[in-house]
Fold this protein.
Amino acid sequence: MTTTDHLRAEVARRFAALDMPSWPAPHAEDSAPAEEEYSRVSEPERYRIVIERARLWAQVLAEAGAVVVPEAVRSAPAFPWNPEEEPVQRALRVDPPAGVAGAAPWWLLESDVPQNDGGTLPVLRVAVGRPDQVREALPDCGCDACDPGSADLLDAVDEAVLGAVSAGVTLTGRCGLLRRRDWHVVWDASGRAEGDAGPRWWPFRRLVRACEELASGGQPALPRGTRVSIRAAWFPGRSVGASQA
């Protein structure tokens, strides 16, 4: 039986054989970066590890029954739920294995972000459901001050992909004066949740609990006009939800 734990171990094994760069986090938790590090990207090319890790995930998922195909995607949001878009140079669409009802595809989006010295910073975005629904951008900043180290970056890639293939719930809506403010909450079965509060009396934590109930088949109260999207898990190892419009 294919499980997410098995898939992650196989990705890690193949990645180790690539002999890619690795480096520790340059700053201890109790030390602040120097001011000049915020405007410096010393080795942008080493961030290619996030691209290679994600490609291995696509490869391993294809061997487990997923359908992986290149797709023309011209641009995508720079960060999750950020309307500002950046160009995409390469994209792969990863569809769930046949027979997995209610599961959603995800996209591996690669960008080459120009740097002041003429080089490029490799950036990976993971989108779920649609190419414009970016859930993760790595690195979120390539400057030396924000460098988390290679181990944290690889873990972040793994968690982004595992979130994409796990059961999940997305809530979206509008609120505020004349309903001008958009709000959203995205939750997946790993326990990750991001977004913001909805209308008055609907704090973020309450909306997350509603997502958990929906994934378990419940029918919790929701703000008026909430749009609900529930996706199923691709493999055992993460909870399975049902598809709902």
